[in-house]
Amino acid sequence: MQENQSLWRSRRSIATVRSKSEVKQLILKHFELVVDFLMHISGLIQYPNIFLSDKDACIKSLLIYSKYKIDYADAFLVSLVNLNTGSNLFTFDKKLLKILSEITP
């Protein structure tokens, strides 16, 4: 009898079923926290005592990262190409090319 109760307890603790709307809300809440964190980082980068090789590229890449939900490395590449007028980006990633065409004036 005691063995069955412990088995039932372990099964109950393993499976937590959530509806699609609950999962969607959790993902959106997490994404909002990440975007808020990124905006704080971009504010910190602008302080004169913070030294980076290219502050404009870092700030722009954070904005691209938060808007398009891509990897930060990809966002940084897109921001570098966007800020350096003579640069080109050679990639097979169609999503990156689309993002670059959207943000390039």
Task: Outline the fold blueprint.
Elements (H helix, E strand, L loop, with lengths): L1 H13 L5 H26 L9 H14 L3 H12 L10 H10 L2
Helix pairs in contact: 2-3, 3-4, 4-5
Spatial separation of the terminal alpha carbons: 72 Å
Number of domains: 1
Number of beta strands: 0
Largest beta-sheet characterization = none
Whole-number mean pLDDT: 76
Structural class: mainly alpha
Residue runs with pLDDT of under 50 for 5 or more positions: 1-8, 11-15
Helical amount: over 70%
Describe this structure in words.
This protein is mainly alpha-helical. The protein has one domain. Helix content is 71%, strand content 0%. The chain is flat, with a radius of gyration of 22 Å. It starts with a helix and ends with a helix. Residues 1-8 and 11-15 have low confidence and may be disordered.
Quick gist of this model?
The chain has 105 residues and is mainly alpha-helical. The protein has five helices and no strands.
What brief labels describe this structure?
105 residues, mainly alpha, 5 helices, 71% helix, flat, disordered N terminus
